[in-house]
Design brief:
Keywords: Hydrolase. This protein is α/β, with parallel strands linked by helices. About 40% of the residues lie in helices and about 20% in strands. The protein is globular, with a radius of gyration of 18 Å.
Length: about 290
């Protein structure tokens, strides 16, 4: 019997318009009404993830930064896995040598060095997700959405490395060349440091502390609640979801998921455009998966 559900956000719980549909919302609330704990497990920072949940009226625990932090339902951080500053400096040196644009997720929010580059990268994601969306329209949508999310623009990331009040949770790098360019860089970084490198979209790599994985975070939360992993359900669409799909007794890959991710999950849900999360939750409840 399902007692806990952990869902990814982008490409999963969220539609291509980056909102939680009414169908998904009602299914989540129904699960919570039946005593099933629902939480999101996202690559987003807390400040980037919370607005969509607030808009839908969903209050829950949150696994953020791919497992770098876990927050309780009141927004208090209860677990943090950060990258030490020396390792962060080495990551940044490698990415700069490769001429890659990257951003830093920290305990003080997300930092970026270039607003135009940030908008362009997000627009590329939208254009790839939404059929018939022109890049010009994607730029407009990206600008509107990103303006609603808190981000700190900084002249040089090096300033953060000497600020003891800030911990580095994740480094995310982008390239339009995709896995062909990014995968070798990911392998190089993992070989040289205590890191876990994954991806949430074809045009990025996400670099975390080796223990910052969604699967580890789901296991920790299940243990805290006294719930066996056989009674946990996870839902995701991309490679940063693989660790939690592997640990759960019931796992769903979205219909829009990467094909290699679908091979790992036990079940396949509908797409994020067709309320796949909501349908999967209701199926799990009705069929007692």
């Amino acid at each position: 019997m399902i007692k806990m559900i952990a869902s990814d956000m982008d490409g999963t719980l969220l539609s291509s318009h980056l909102a939680i549909s009414e169908t998904n919302k009602e299914a989540v609330l129904e699960a919570q009404a039946q005593g099933i704990e629902f939480m999101v497990a996202t690559g987003r920072a807390y400040s980037e993830a919370k607005p969509a949940l607030d808009d839908a009226g969903i209050k829950c625990c949150m696994i953020t930064g791919n497992g770098a932090q876990i927050f309780d339902e009141n927004g208090e951080a209860i677990v943090t896995f950060s990258i030490d500053k020396k390792t962060t400096k080495e990551i940044m040196t490698t990415l700069r040598e490769k001429n890659l644009y990257f951003e830093l997720m920290t305990t003080n929010g997300v930092y970026a060095e270039s607003q135009p580059q940030r908008v362009e990268n997000f627009a590329t994601l939208l254009a790839n997700q939404v059929p018939h969306l022109t890049f010009k329209m994607a730029i407009a949508m990206a600008s509107t959405h990103l303006n609603m999310l808190p981000v700190h623009y900084i002249n040089n990331y090096d300033d953060l490395l000497v600020d003891d009040s800030v911990e580095i949770l994740k480094v995310i790098a982008f390239s339009d060349e995709g896995p062909k360019l990014l995968r070798p860089i990911a392998d190089e970084l993992e070989a040289n440091g205590p890191l876990y490198v994954t991806a949430s979209f074809p045009n990025n790599i996400e670099i975390n502390h080796k223990d910052a994985q969604k699967g580890n975070a789901v296991k920790l939360m299940a243990e805290k609640r006294g719930i066996g992993l056989e009674d946990v359900m996870t839902i995701g669409d991309n490679f940063n979801d693989v660790s939690m799909l592997k640990v759960a007794g019931v796992s769903f890959a979205m219909g829009n998921a990467e094909e290699d991710v679908k091979k790992i999950a036990k079940y396949e849900a509908d797409t994020n455009m067709n309320h796949g999360v909501g349908k999967a939750i209701l199926r799990a409840i009705s069929e007692n998966l």
